[in-house]
Amino acid sequence: MSDAAGRMAECCRRLADLGLIAGAAGNISVRLAEDRVLVTPSGLIKADLGSEDMVEVDLAGEVIRGQHPPSGELGLHLQILRSRGDVTAVIHAHPPVATGMSVAGQEFDWDVLPEMVFLVGRVPVVPYGAPGTRELAKLIDPFIEGHDTLILANHGAVSMGASLDEAQIRMETLEHSAKIVFTARLLGRVSHLSRDEVRRLEGLRPNRDRSRGLLDGPAPGHYKPPKES
Ligand SMILES: [Zn+2]
């Protein structure tokens, strides 16, 4: 279909190889033009997708071209692409360690590693919404502006970027960092970077003018997990 489609198929394989998605889970979208988006199909094993499997839709979600139905999370992708003109690609995956922290009711420590501050930024936890629903697309809405990566409580994560490479780097960095944070928590102590260092790293972010200051965002503790049952 296009170079973008081939690159999306490659990204799906990479996400599967890294264990960030399993089976038919996960989805990717790439903006082709102002009102044209290429998205992965619903239901198929993502690691096996070819470029011909991608589905072209408009920003209202109408299918323009494709042999399969579009991703069940199309609403979430379009919500982001409609709100953020600077975003060209969106990845939704189920990174096990980053997602596991939300299952444990824990927030993500974003200010402990330089690459997290520089490449990913603050990662809010979006309250749980059933996958593939309008409710989930609505729940992410307040978090889209000023964040490039989100954790969806008890579900997975979303990363976005000015290119598919950028979105992929953010998703991979998120999970890699989650493993490091998880290790630190197991060892019994998480040490944070100084506020000055976070500010300095933030200043190096490519889209720092758009991204909310890490130290100026919602206070840690904004995420209230549901009570244990
Ligand atoms: Zn999902």
Characterise this structure:
By secondary structure, the chain is of the alpha+beta class. It has one domain (3-203): Class II aldolase/adducin N-terminal domain (L-fuculose-1-phosphate Aldolase, 3-Layer(aba) Sandwich). Helix content is 37%, strand content 15%. The protein is built from seven helices and eight strands, in the order αββββαβααβαββαα. It has helices spanning 3-17, 74-83, 96-103, 114-120, 134-144, 164-187, 195-203, and strands at 27-33, 36-39, 55-57, 63-65, 89-93, 125-126, 149-152, 156-161. The protein has an eight-stranded mixed sheet, sandwiched between helices. α2 runs parallel beside α5. It is globular and about 50 Å long. The relative contact order is 0.15. Mean pLDDT is 90; it is low at 209-221. It binds zinc ion (ZN). The site of zinc ion (ZN) has 6 residues, from loops. The site of zinc ion has 6 residues, from loops.
Which keywords apply here?
globular; 8-stranded mixed sheet; 229 residues; alpha+beta; L-fuculose-1-phosphate Aldolase
CATH superfamily: Class II aldolase/adducin N-terminal domain
Q: Structural class of the secondary elements? A: alpha+beta
Which value, in Å, is the CA radius of gyration? 17 Å
* Unreliable residue stretches: 209-221
Distance between the termini: 48 Å
Query: Within the largest sheet, what's the order of strands?
Result: 4-3-2-1-5-8-7-6
Q: Tell me the series of helices and strands, N- to C-terminal.
A: HEEEEHEHHEHEEHH
What overall form do the CA principal axes indicate? globular
CATH class: Alpha Beta
Strand content: 5-15%
- Fold-level CATH name: L-fuculose-1-phosphate Aldolase
Average of pLDDT: 90
The second-level CATH architecture is 3-Layer(aba) Sandwich
Q: Give me the number of helical elements.
A: 7
Strand segment tally: 8
Biggest sheet features: 8 strands, mixed
Small molecules in complex: zinc ion
* Total separate domains: 1
**Helix percentage range:** 25-40%
